[in-house]
Amino acid sequence: MIRILILLFSFFVLNFSPAFSDTDQDTLPIGNSKYKFFMSKIEKDQIIETSTNKVVSISDIVNKNFATDVFIIGEYHDNYECHKFQKEFIETLYKKYPKIVVGFEFFLRDQNSILERWSAGNITEDELLKKTGWYKRSSLSYGYTKMIMDVIKKNKIKVIGLNINRKIVHKVARMGLNSLSKEERRLFPTINIYNREHEYFIKTIFAKIAIQAPLWFKNMYNAQKCWDVIMAESMLKVLSMKKYKNYKGVIIAGSAHVAYKLGIPFRYKAAKKSLRSTTIIPVHLPLKKDKSEGEGMSPMMKMMAGNLKPVAIFSRGLGDYIFSVPQSDRSYFPVLGIRGSLNNSQFVISKVNNRSIAEKNGIKKGDIIISIDGNKIISIEQLRLLMLKKDWNDLIDFKIIKNIKIEK
Fold this sequence. Notes:
This protein is of the alpha/beta class and 408 residues long. It folds into 2 domains: 2-16 and 334-405, PDZ domain (Pdz3 Domain), CATH 2.30.42; 39-326, 3-Layer(aba) Sandwich (Rossmann fold). It contains 15 helices and 16 strands. The protein has helices at 58-64, 80-96, 112-119, 125-131, 134-137, 143-155, 166-175, 182-185, 196-206, 208-212, 214-239, 264-271, 299-307, 357-360, 380-388; strands spanning 2-12, 39-42, 47-49, 54-55, 70-75, 100-108, 158-163, 248-254, 277-285, 312-315, 321-326, 338-343, 346-352, 368-372, 375-376, 395-405. Strand 14 (368-372) and strand 15 form a beta hairpin. Helix 7 packs antiparallel against helix 11 and helix 11 (214-239) crosses helix 12. The radius of gyration is 23 Å and the shape is globular.
């Protein structure tokens, strides 16, 4: 027997601690840097210039690379400190050289007119996110990008989208490059230029499955190349326009697209050899000391290891500049951790993530969210937009219809 209850309750969005997994992609001896066989370390709040292995500042990067055509900055998408660095870099670059164009992986190239309308103040931030489908395409909080976008709007900096509709790239991932039409193929002019080290790098990310399912990996790798090519081409296209002559570009994309100059930087250079790029890559500092560190060491070496500062190790071929960011044991912005869809004009939850806010507060699959803070919920996009306005200590009022089984 199932009894339907309508509940009105509140909870604080606290204590959400998703598991964090890091990668070992920062120490590979690949890429075209002559320093790729040299290892280095970085501490908290440092930026390392890999050519000299010295600590520098953001101002140093800007001043030393005045001849650069495009700065390509990698990121961990859900790391607040990454985006804070990007914000400070753009502010510093703008003061020195105000003619810049900033391109984002998370906006599409055919959304530039929408971005211009937002930048000019003709549409609100909520309208920007709805018209660009930010929360239809991703669950990543816009809060990370917002701090950069605020700087862009304040200083009237040109902003563009770098990506294309995912349907095209997903088609490549499913059926290969030959599935593209001639018109679609023209979007990726450098796609056939092979880079053995890039393929190896992507294989290290996919690990065993890349070796055990080679045909599947071939399509996935070609899809990855499509992302790299289109983002490089989107910036090149804008910077080649007469009105943006002598402008510098700033590309913001995931680190896997930038590392070792094998993704976007390689495709950017392949399109026009004379163009100069500077890559800036983040690396994670350890969340906490590894308890197993020092096993097998002598007591004296253990003591020395215990007194060392937390550092991240990287190959100096990883990028032109490396900056450190702390790992986080939770999302900087609160996330409910649910999925759902509209069914008979009601938003029905189809999945609740483990250890999420929703799970900890008793929300389950099959529950129906009626409203949040009095706002009727009609889509997952609207729900995420409402959560964008929330901080961890905010109180949220939910009105929910719950399905409750009563055992005999």
